[in-house]
């Protein structure tokens, strides 16, 4: 298998909802393992996600989990997830689902570099950037 870079997102107890939402957006196979699956004691973590992985038909892999017991959750804005390509229909479909009812900081529009680009933050606090490459000609 070739090396690949995968975003791995941390959540404060809502990883299951987030990963299921992303499955609805992108499709694919979602695998979730809970802390209870690995024998973690304590009922407050039994159903929390220890590791989640979504593999999509487009070849995306997104991973996420609830923060581990005993570790402080520190959300931040030091990351975003970027989707790019030239399949306008596919990317616009992702944009519609990711931005619907959420905060749009840059509307999905043609930009000065010629591509169509937008940026939004979903209900889980994840910033998404969508760039649709356009042919210059």
TrEMBL record:
<dbReference type="InterPro" id="IPR028973">
    <property type="entry name" value="PhnB-like"/>
</dbReference>
<dbReference type="InterPro" id="IPR029068">
    <property type="entry name" value="Glyas_Bleomycin-R_OHBP_Dase"/>
</dbReference>
<dbReference type="InterPro" id="IPR004360">
    <property type="entry name" value="Glyas_Fos-R_dOase_dom"/>
</dbReference>
<dbReference type="Pfam" id="PF00903">
    <property type="entry name" value="Glyoxalase"/>
</dbReference>
<protein>
    <submittedName>
        <fullName>VOC family protein</fullName>
    </submittedName>
</protein>
<feature type="domain" description="Glyoxalase/fosfomycin resistance/dioxygenase">
    <location>
        <begin position="4"/>
        <end position="130"/>
    </location>
</feature>
